[in-house]
Specification:
The chain is elongated and about 100 Å long. 19% of the residues lie in helices and 25% in strands. It has four helices and 13 strands. With 210 residues, the chain is α+β, with helices and mostly antiparallel strands. About 4% of the residues have low confidence. 7% of the residues are buried. A hairpin with a 4-residue loop joins strand 6 and strand 7. The strands form five sheets. It has a five-stranded antiparallel sheet. A two-stranded antiparallel ribbon has the order 1-9. A two-stranded antiparallel ribbon has the order 3-4. The chain folds into three domains: 33 residues, no CATH class; 50 residues, no CATH class; 72 residues.
């Protein structure tokens, strides 16, 4: 018992006189250098085009930086454009689109109602629009008076309703491609019809950057 007590007393004495030495012995003769700050934490999600000394640009930061290097920054920068004045969409004329079959012309409303054409026709065209200045609807049908004074029957003509789409006015060349949505649809998390939806719906005339 006395020998055990003597050994314990000597150990306490040595630990008191050389505490630093005891720690060094526990760590080894060549302790490793302190870990730099850059290896301690990840950089916050952002674009890092230069090397960082205080954090590691990995994870979300690495993804955002790689996307920015390809010309796709996040969040997307708005287009250098603005919507025109909606008053510019108002014109003092009415139009209809001529069908692919064409339309016969009549010299008067009575001729049009009696179906007695003048012998002249509006030739068919894929994008042929004609303006009219009068529209008559009665028991005989619907008839349009063209700005030239000739009449046509409403059958075979489709009235062109006012179109809300105006496009955009640009102050400079866009940085990346863009487009307008034509039909309502939802986006997916990845290419392919098997990919799940994101829950975001795009509507007609929404602007999307590609």
């Amino acid at each position: 018992m006395r020998r055990l007590l003597l050994t314990f007393t000597i150990f306490l004495l040595l630990a008191t006189l050389w505490p630093g030495r005891a720690v060094e012995a526990a760590q080894g003769d060549n302790p490793s250098t302190q870990e730099p700050d850059s290896g301690a934490v990840l950089c916050p999600p952002a674009v890092y085009l230069a090397s960082q000394d205080d954090c590691l640009p990995l994870g979300p930061a690495q993804f955002l930086t790689e996307m920015a290097a390809q010309g796709m920054p996040y969040p997307l920068q708005p287009l250098p454009a603005y919507a025109p004045n909606p008053d510019l969409n108002t014109v003092p004329y009415s139009y209809f689109k001529v069908t692919d079959e064409g339309l016969p012309l009549f010299w008067s409303l009575d001729d049009a109602m009696a179906n007695q054409p003048s012998g002249q026709v509006l030739q068919p065209g894929k994008f042929l629009y004609v303006s009219y200045q009068d529209r008559v609807q009665n028991d005989q049908g619907v008839f349009y008076m063209l700005r030239s004074g000739a009449w046509i029957q409403g059958e075979g003509a489709r009235a062109a309703l006012p179109y809300p789409f105006q496009g955009l006015l640009f102050s400079s060349t866009p940085r990346n491609p863009f487009g307008w949505v034509l039909e309502e649809g939802q986006s997916r998390v990845a290419p392919g019809f098997d990919s799940p939806y994101t829950g975001h719906t795009f509507y007609r005339f929404n602007i999307v950057q590609v």
